[in-house]
Amino acid sequence: MIESHTAAVVADWVRGWALSRGTPEPVEEPDGFRVDVGLPGHLVRHVLPEASAAGPRAAALTEPGTWLKVCGAPEQVRPLLTPAWTVGAPEYLMSVELGVRAPVTPPAPYAVELRGTGDVRDAVVLAGGEVAAKGRVAVHGRAAVIDVVETDPAHRRRGLGSVVMSELTRAAAARGATRAVLVATEAGLALYRGLGWTVVSPVTAAHLPVA
Asked: Which residues contact 123 (CB under 8 A, 6 or more apart)?
């Protein structure tokens, strides 16, 4: 696999993502990584740090439920794929250096809890016992992957995403991580940029649908 800054961040992300989701260890291949996810509609995932690898890899894959995550914008990746592939909305590989940071306190009446032990922890923001926002961090070596961050629609625009990210990054730093990475949707891009994250590469997701 080609050595580059993007490839190094992709390696951090895919290993932490597998840890977060409880899949087998990713398998390194000449053009990227393979993750055997094993879920209905998401059997296997191929993660490619170079957009140029998308064409040859996609041409070799035919099984429904196969996914690609390619570092490259949709307009760059889509022409390399056959019509059998369904291309998703733009995503973004992002990273931030971790350090000592003050916690972000949730506004009343919310409270935040950090759950779990070891390398995988969950941050949960509660309102009256109900989950208002949540997210997960998985630490693999010196890198941490932020995953499944979401805020309930009824509790948005109250800074709860920042509370979750604060808890997760502080937990990762305490575990020894020095860098955090994630793949953001368009909706999350502004939040992460506002918290100091930078875009490493646009990402295009595509899959072979299950009939």
From this structure: 112, 113, 114, 115, 134, 135, 136, 137, 163, 164, 167, 168, 171
| Whole-prediction pTM | 0.95
Give the integer Cα–Cα distance in Å for 169 and 175: 10
Domains identified in the chain, total number = 2
pLDDT, tens digit, 9 for 90 and up, residues 97-116: 998 888 999 999 999 999 99
117 SS3 class: coil
Give residue 137's pLDDT band: very low, low, confident or very high (50, 70, 90).
Answer: very high
Domain assignment of residue 189, yes or no: no
Q: What is the largest CA-CA distance in the chain?
A: 53
Rounded to an integer, what is the distance from CA 4 to the centroid of its chain?
19
What range defines the domain where residue 154 resides? Answer: 99-177
Residues 19 and 87 in one domain: yes
9-21 pLDDT, tens digit each:
999 999 999 999 9
